[in-house]
Amino acid sequence: MPGSARAEGATAPENECVRCHLEQEEEDENLAKPPKEWRQSIHHENSIMCNDCHGGSPIGKDEEEAHDEEDAEFIGAPADDDIPGVCGECHIAVHENYMKSKHWLTKKEKRPVCTTCHGAHLIKEATLDLINEKTCSECHKYERSKRIKVAMTATEDKLLALENRIHLLKSEGMDVRSLDQTHFAQRNLFHRLSHILDLDEVIRIAETVGKDTELLSNKIGEQEGVLSRRRLAGGVLTAFLLLGALGMHFARKSLGE
Amino acid sequence: MGKIADWVEERVHYRELVHSQFTGYMVPANLNVWYSMGSVLLMLIGIQFATGILLLTHYIPQTSHAFNSVMDLSEKIPFGWLIRRIHAIAANLFVLVLMLHMLSVLIMGSYKKPRELQWISGVVLFGLGLFACLSGYLLPWSQLSYWATTVATNSAGSVPIIGDDMVRWLRGGDRVDQTTLGRFYALHVSVLPPLFTFIVAAHLFLMRRVGISAPPGIPKEQVKKVPFFPHFVLEDMRASYFFLAVLFVGVFFVPQISFPPDAMEPADPLFTPPHIKPEWYFLANYQLLKVVPNEFLGIGLQGLGGALLLLLPFLDRGQERRPLKRPLFLAVVVASLAGFIGLTVWGHLS
User: Fold this and answer.
1) Between chain A and chain B, how many beta carbons pairs sit less than 8 Å apart?
2) Three-state SS at B26
3) Which positions ≥6 away from B126 have C-beta within 8 Å?
4) Interface membership of A107 toward B (CB under 8 Å)
5) How far is CA B58 from CA B85, B138, B258, B266, B330, in A?
6) In this predicted complex, what is the ipTM?
7) Are B347 and B284 in contact (CB under 8 A)?
8) With an 8 Å Cβ cutoff, are B231 and A248 in contact?
9) Closest CA to A194 of A137, A140, A118
10) What is the mean pLDDT of chain A?
């Protein structure tokens, strides 16, 4: 219902690409597979649509208009070597590190691109679990990857614990904007490491971020203290009010009718 | 003090006024706790006016600044967080107490002749209260307020033929944007408060002219009387203290009632948060629209319910006020209440 006021609804955003591909499931299963996987992805969760990566017009009235290479800048499925560029449009820092890493600098026929580890459409939030023996040993020995993972795990755990504490404060109605921003910056700096593939650099930055998390932890602790003090004040105030109600009750009773 | 009081008395004659309105104003002695809901509501209106004025001193009604202005108020202004929380949670409490007040009036048959105008003014206040909540809900321009307002205003689209136009009229355009924020802000701070004040004043005026209706069961001439002050004022204060305690339990211990995580994020018209729903007092209407297969039927049922409520004193003209002597009416009230609670819970869980 384009153009309708009611189209501004509460459902997750979808578009003509998704609708049309899903409608053709019976004729060609492969056409429906990408949107079905996308619906379960972090991209769907963050409203990153088909046309954001593949180009094309999400409001095209037919297949030709939707897939017009000139007007709609449709690129379809990008070639392997073009994939980092497509993903790097948004993931700028990761792209920058990846282009300097052995993953990109290796021989073209051996080169893993973003989709090799993250998948194409069923992309989940990146965690250290992506570094695992099964995936890494498809191309090389796991030993070096494992050392990078170990070096990152302790700091990653700290960041996750801080994220949970911030979320808890937020769910208590506390303003956590500055804490969120600091955490986001630290996490981003840290997650970029996974694409550097230089063990010494990973250890150095992991230590730096680890120290920064201590500072952030102290700031979160201050907010947790504020919350506790507010609750104590609230408890005292509520108790006084209930005592006041009781006092009024007895005062009224003492007057009789 | 005494000389000052005498000086004022000579010029204002306030002692006569105090006597006629408080110490000499006699009310039935058997008024129960339900009769204090009106005072609790007056207290909550006062709280809303006071905190609303304080919020106004920092609020910026522009989509680019609104969210930061309320968040900065919470973080940088001393006790700003407290003022904001009280305003938001007292709004919820206001709707709840207003519902309790109306329920007690329904069950005790206090809407009957000669109190038809009081009932109508009460129903109008209920409608205005809900509209004040809806318009105020958008103002922080958070993800929650943006999308809940989008969902709530969508409901008007269920009306056939003019539905989409009604949605555009409410929003001032196809979508919730600066125009919507501007008109909701104007309504919330400059139209609804004076309207509220006027109708509350009319409601109280009518109550004083016609008198408080005593609980049913005892013949009017046998009802004992007590002075409004101090007897009934103490009862009102007891209820007010209790509901203030309830308010502060919400403010200090369960602020998530009004401030879930989505309320702490700025509005993003391009990203719909999952499971967004209207506030609890609109959940029954929201769920009814989802359950009834025909949207117009859903809206029609709600309109019919509202009209029946408004015109109730003219439809139920019997003299009997005792609830157990009106089994059919009582059954309808209980069934409606169960339906409302059931739909609200269903809407919350779905």
Assistant:
1) 114
2) strand
3) B98, B99, B102
4) no
5) 15, 16, 20, 17, 48
6) 0.90
7) yes
8) no
9) A118
10) 87
Closest chain B CA to residue A174: B264
Q: Average pLDDT, stretch B73-90?
A: 94
Instruction: Please write the tens of the pLDDT for every residue from A111-147.
Output: 999 999 999 999 988 888 899 999 999 889 999 899 8
- What is the torsion angle, in degrees rounded to the nearest 10, for the CA atoms of residue B196, residue B200, residue B206 and residue B211? 160
pLDDT for the residue numbered A47: 81
pLDDT at A7: 33
Percent of chain B residues topping a pLDDT of 90: 78
**Under CATH, to which class is B2-349 assigned?**
mainly alpha
Per CB-CB distance under 8 Å, the chain A contacts of B168 are 5
Q: Kindly determine whether residue A6 and residue B81, on different chains, have CB atoms separated by under 8 Å.
A: no
Q: Residue B231 is nearest to which of A167, A177, A255, comparing CB atoms?
A: A255
- Rounded CA-CA distance B124/B196 in Å is 9
CA distance A197 to chain B (A): 34
User: Which residue blocks in chain B are alpha helix, DSSP H?
Assistant: 2-12, 14-18, 37-56, 66-76, 80-107, 116-138, 143-154, 163-171, 178-186, 192-210, 233-253, 280-291, 295-310, 312-315, 327-349
Q: Is the pLDDT at B202 greater than 60, yes or no? A: yes
Lowest mean pLDDT among A23-27, A32-36, B62-66, B335-339: A23-27
Kindly tell me if the per-residue pLDDT of B294 is higher than 90: no
Please name the residues between 10 and 29 in chain A that touch chain B, using a CB distance below 8 Å.
10-13
Rounded-to-integer distance, Cα A56 and Cα A72, Å: 5
Task: Please give the average per-residue pLDDT across B138-157, as a whole number.
Answer: 90
Nearest-neighbour CA in chain B from A161: distance (Å): 18
B171 neighbors A5 (Cβ within 8 angstroms): yes
pLDDT at residue A12 greater than cutoff 60 = no
Is A234 in Cβ contact with B249 (below 8 Å)? yes
Instruction: Inform me whether the C-beta atom of residue A108 falls under 8 Å from chain B C-beta atoms.
Output: no
> Chain B closest CA to A223's CA: distance in Å?
11
Distance between CA B108 and CA B95 in Å, rounded? 20
User: H helices then E strands: how many in chain A?
Assistant: 13, 0
* Mutation for A interface: B240, B272, B277, B290, most A CBs within 10 A: B272
